Amino acid sequence: MTEFLRFIVLGGALACPFIPLYFYFTGNWYAFFHPYSLGAVFGLFSYVYFLNTLIIAGRIKFFDRLFGHDRVMVFHSYLAMTAMFSALVHLLLKQFYFQTEAISVLPGIWGLLIFFTVAAITMLFMSGPGQNLRFFSALRSFAADRLKIDYNHFKLFHNLVSAAAVLIALHALAASSTREKNSRTLILGIWAIAALSIYLYHKLFKPAFLLKKLVIQSVTMLTDDLLQIRFEKSRDRLIDRSGQFGFFRILSPVCGREEHPFTVASSPDEPVSLLIKKNGDYTGKLHGLQPGTEVLFDGPYGRFFAEKKSGCCLGIAGGAGISPFISFFSERKNTGFPHPFIFIWCVKRQEDLFCLDFLGELKKKFPNFSFTLFISEQGNRLNYTFLQQFFTKYPPLKTTVYFCGPQTLRQSVSAWIKTAGLPKKSFYYEKFSL
Ligand SMILES: Cc1cc2nc3c(=O)[nH]c(=O)nc-3n(C[C@H](O)[C@H](O)[C@H](O)COP(=O)(O)OP(=O)(O)OC[C@H]3O[C@@H](n4cnc5c(N)ncnc54)[C@H](O)[C@@H]3O)c2cc1C
């Protein structure tokens, strides 16, 4: 059923430019492939896809539950690329065949320029199309090293797409072909208003009025670079299932009021706690937070442990990537695991280890839970041979693999399990980057 719903939603998202196309071409479909009409076709595809990227950016929970946040964001970026490509073809066709001086062209050109600039810079600083290609990753690390643009400044800059959307909507609404029929103006107008409203609701209204408030109870350093933030018990459950994450905005002068995503490391029934690794400017300041500090929470998002699978589970965590697993294990600490759960935790140093007592207790209590540590500094790294041994005992077709950790480890694990014959749909991962 879920697969079917995904198919319908994805198909609908890709096919929806045909709705305005119907209003433009009904009664004269024969003209569809004329270069002038093709210009309009590409223009409408670009218009709808671009506005749909704004709708998706509104973090609509229905999409998140259906596909998972990572995939929604990847789709968002591919849709933006397709919109841009269509806009360029639209521009070329229109200019090549019908050079026009119409005033309505100007907002379109400006909208496209802004969109193009934002998209190009996004490719340098956020994950998206081509992120796994060597050329792009080299370009991204070069840009990150040289330009040192703060991620949150970049996020602010990214909001310029809403200005581009207004300009592009003005361009489309003022075009002579749109003005020919009220139905065309209406459908394009509704699309623009809906997309901009969802975007502005998400960016302005929700943070100002609708987010849940949490209060910090304690901040503890668990290792020299990993801290735990515990929150006071709140009235409502903040997550629906273990392994979910939220966007946290800590309201303190210690760290500013930026919004950052963190995975909830407690079970849905416990007061929320987070495990945060010192990773940069922001996370490096959080140890200075005081109990009583208020925090806004937007979530829950993610579906790491969403689908109930039968058969064995292999969980692999790298460093702070243990967070969703702790949430899951806390949920299971009284009831146990219905199927064998083999957990692998890879860390750099002995000093990175914590919560071993908790894992040890689970192992003692539940015979179908086991865990293995890999400490790379001691020359002890997870490798294909280890996984091969695992898969001789537990057939890949009956195994689900969950991974959370650094990208390099994820890429290796992904390649190993593919070689071992594990189907792609049985591999769930959380990237810790957007
Ligand atoms: C879904 C998800 C869940 C996460 N869960 C955890 C967790 O449980 N524990 C943990 O330690 N880390 C987690 N992270 C990573 C954490 O959000 C980043 O390490 C943190 O935001 C880095 O901020 P910084 O300014 O200290 O580091 P920087 O050096 O400024 O940034 C390092 C990288 O973190 C990302 N980043 C920075 N700021 C933001 C932001 N505001 N929003 C999104 N990404 C940003 C960017 O990719 C950036 O390149 C998670 C990330 C995601 C996407």
Description:
It is built from 15 helices and 11 strands. It is α/β, with parallel strands linked by helices and 434 residues long. The chain has 3 domains: 2-209; 211-301, Beta Barrel (Elongation Factor Tu (Ef-tu), domain 3), CATH 2.40.30; 312-430, Rossmann fold (3-Layer(aba) Sandwich), CATH 3.40.50. The strands form 2 sheets. The chain has a 6-stranded antiparallel sheet with strand order 4-3-6-1-2-5. The chain has a 5-stranded parallel sheet with strand order 9-8-7-10-11, with helices on both faces. Strand 8, helix 13 (356-365) and strand 9 (369-375) form a beta-alpha-beta unit. The radius of gyration is 25 Å and the shape is globular. The two termini are 28 Å apart. Residues 151-152, 245, 258-263, 274-277, 279-284, 320, 323, 432-434 line the site of flavin-adenine dinucleotide.
Kindly summarize this structure in a few lines.
By secondary structure, the protein is of the alpha/beta class. The protein has helices spanning about 1-15, 20-25, 35-55, 60-65, 70-95, 105-125, 135-145, 150-160, 160-175, 175-180, 180-210, 325-330, 355-365, 385-395, 405-420; strands at about 210-225, 225-230, 245-250, 260-265, 275, 295-300, 310-320, 340-345, 370-375, 400-405, 425-430.
Which ions and ligands are bound to the chains? Answer: flavin-adenine dinucleotide
The number of E-state strands comes to 11
Order of strands in the sheet with most strands:
4-3-6-1-2-5
pLDDT average, as an integer? 88
Count, helices: 15
Give the biggest sheet: 6 strands, antiparallel
Helix content: 40-55%
Rg measurement, Å: 25 Å
Strand content: 15-25%
Spatial separation of the terminal alpha carbons? 28 Å
Please write the string of helix (H) and strand (E) elements. HHHHHHHHHHHEEEEEEEHEHEHEHE
Principal-axis shape equals globular
Which ranges are low-confidence, i.e. pLDDT below 50, for 5 or more consecutive residues? Answer: none
Structural class: alpha/beta
Instruction: Count structural domains.
Output: 3
